[in-house]
Prior knowledge:
The protein is of the alpha/beta class.
Amino acid sequence: MSIAQKPINNYDAIVVGAGFAGMYMLHKLRGLGLSVKVYETGSGVGGTWFWNRYPGARCDIDSLEYSYQFSDELQQEWHWPERYSAQPDILEYANHVAERFDLRKDIQFNTQVESSVYDEDSKSWNITTSDGKTQSAQFCIMATGCLSSTNTPDFKGIESFKGQTYHTGQWPHEPVDFSGKRVGIIGTGSSAIQAIPEIAKQAEHLYVFQRTPNYTVPSNNGPMDKETEQTIKADYPAFRERNSKMPAGLGADSGRKTNMGVSALDVSHEEREAEYESRWDTAGLSIGGSFGDLMLNQESNDTIAEFARGKIRGIVNDPATAEALCPEQTFACKRLCVDTGYYQTFNRPNVTLVDISQGAIDEITPAGLQANGDAFELDCIIFATGFDAMTGSLLKAGIRGEGGQTLTDKWSAGPRTYLGLGTSGFPNLFTITGPGSPSVLTNMIPSIEQHVNWIADCIQYLKESNLQTINATDEAEDAWVEHVNVLASHTLYPSCNSWYLGANVPGKPRVFMPHIGFPSYVEKCNEVAANGYQGFALA
Ligand code: NAP
């Protein structure tokens, strides 16, 4: 290419989003000597942990695992106060990382990306932002998060409500005081299950509007165990390495025997119950690893589902409320929740469960809402109604690829990617933890790091090889989409209306979006890179 034809880009790469993915991507590319600009809608770093400030917001993965490993100094020096970190502590960590690696100078906050358009002549991306400016870059990297586009159902009369409304995923920065208030919360997913016990302590009365009960297990959270922390820090890289070999990339050192090769039906009823019992109070999410076939065999899954229902009936005093709280769907088919005192909260006199499974929220009224034909007077309504997961934020970024094709059109029947990293027809566009990658079924931060490292290596390879573009081939993408679907079809995951399938958003195509299994996925990514980015066309 002659000098005259060489595209003049403002940046080597533009990164969209300054959560944990965007921050590390910036740091990594800067380390390669590239010029990078990051756009972030919020006024600060942290992504999920910037927005989800609702009372009780907390990670349900051990703090020593849910953290960056790219800097050994950072992981050695940082001290997490609790086994499971609360949102303010994770946000403090994100801010510390931004400070320590001087990230803020390349992040433009309070700025939304309105369009991202591929220019076939210059082979670069033009990114137009809410401040009316357009910048170009050879690479566009979407670090927009899997659970960042909030879902508020289109309830009739929603604008008429005279009280305050909140969404758990867009919580105000200043504390909200519910004292003396009649509060309604719609939804009973992970966010609500964490928020309900905290809000119930304050509110005059809390009404919980539940369409589908979820399974939740006690967190057994507490102060960080000093001995555990010291043991892990004594050889942190080896601890990370062991976790990377686990199916979900976490939990290698839980101290429990791995029962992955054992069916729940291979052992006696007593042994099975003893295993579940031992994990119920201490294991959090890893109760799902009690036996290897819980997500493969419905009969096996029924045993843990019945165990969990037994726990609910044992905790909740009112039998009708207990029954309404008992889920019927496959255990952990919807994301398993982890709580602190959730079921106990329904024994409080100021908490009412409103089962709308056979009815609906009929409408929101100026004074509250009407559900199942009954009127509820409320001062505040909280929408704990989740997210347009995995694709929502990508589709909002106005992405157009070759031939002017929009990503929305390309994904009209569901997301199509190769490795969850790229999508054909959109050269030099990378997605961090995109649909088709393990992402939400794993420990997100190590998954983010694996993607960032892969993308950075790829960009370095292209630069060193004097190559201008990388584009997934249709064949590789078709085969990958098929592979992700086949993996899911061998499990019980497709058997319920989860957000993994897009089933929580009316009209969204139903496609199981995450890749099941972390180690096999990493192996595949490494193999693709080692074979000169097999499945991608390089030009
Ligand atoms: P969610 O799991 O999607 O839950 C949304 C809730 O809103 C569901 O109970 C859903 O009922 C209900 N809902 C939606 N539309 C409704 C309607 N029109 N009428 C009545 N109810 C309606 O969302 P989330 O609780 O925000 O959690 C999303 C994900 O974020 C989690 O699965 C998890 O991956 C992540 N998260 C993690 C943590 C953590 O680390 N501890 C905490 C919070 C969130 P149906 O089930 O009937 O659809």
